[in-house]
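agent> fetching stored inputs for the flavin mononucleotide docking request
agent> found them:
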Amino acid sequence: MKRKVIGLSGSYNKSSYTFNLVSKISSEVERMYGLKKTLYDMSDLGTSLGQAMCSEQLDDTIHEVIDDIINAKVLVIGVPTYKASYPGMFKHFFDLLEPEALSGKPIILSATGGSNRHALMLEYQLRPLFNFFKAITMPTAIYAVNSDYKNYLLCESNLLDRISLATKELSPWLIRQ
Ligand SMILES: Cc1cc2nc3c(=O)[nH]c(=O)nc-3n(C[C@H](O)[C@H](O)[C@H](O)COP(=O)(O)O)c2cc1C
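agent> prediction call returned; pasting tokens
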């Protein structure tokens, strides 16, 4: 089975700043380490998520995504900032995973927002969630504001440098056996 980098965007939007950021980072990981890239957004999780109180109530569509996430060599997580944090439905998805599901998983964290004022949500909201799961989050996280894009394509060179840096930080966990 080909080793995969899985990108998950916490947005439902079809034209999405977050999805494009996750895609950009995942492509860099694919390029640097030869992993196969697969991308998901919230709509790929299907309609059972909102009403499920436990993972047994989720349908097959979302179980396939969960399997991909659990078996990924690397995860790239991106969320849109909602009220200075990640969206509630994104958290609900992770509430339904087993506490050990992401143990030891290398993860690049990213987020988008309307303003730079909430950039630290990456450190005070998103990183602690994955610390709970005992995942290994890369020290460099990426926060992009909407004005960093042209037609939803990231064009701010400082952010492209940060993507490259975060990707290089994965190397100790990707030594080929
Ligand atoms: C309900 C809601 C709440 C938001 N709250 C914030 C916020 O607190 N801080 C911020 O910087 N941007 C906020 N935004 C703006 C989004 O984070 C921003 O536009 C993001 O890039 C949208 O990502 P998407 O295009 O992937 O959906 C909010 C947007 C929505 C719809």
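agent> quick read of the result: The chain has a mean pLDDT of 96.
agent> awaiting further instructions
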